[in-house]
Amino acid sequence: MTIQDKIRICRVLKGYSVEYMAIELGIDKSSYSRIERGSVRLDTMKLERIVRLLGIELEWLMCVGEISLDKIIQNENLISILSLENKLLREEIDNLKKKNLQNQK
User: Which of 1, 41, 42, 76 could form a disulfide with 5 if both were Cys (CB 3.0 to 4.6 A apart)?
Assistant: First the structure.
């Protein structure tokens, strides 16, 4: 998997549009599209900004072919599941706090 493939897949998994990425990078949509197609050479500053925007590690991005799409999707699914579980646990804690306050009255 190429660097450009990883950038595109991570962008899509994050739900970011090409337009959003372009705006955040201070470039137009066609320039950003050329980045994902591999038509332009990425400078270090843009690469670092892309990494920050996508919340990925530069080291992972630079390791061409090391990780599969399935692994990325598994990680995203795990994050989604853990986020939902975290939300449910927070709601349960809030409900228990409310019950505790009612019992103290």
Answer: 1
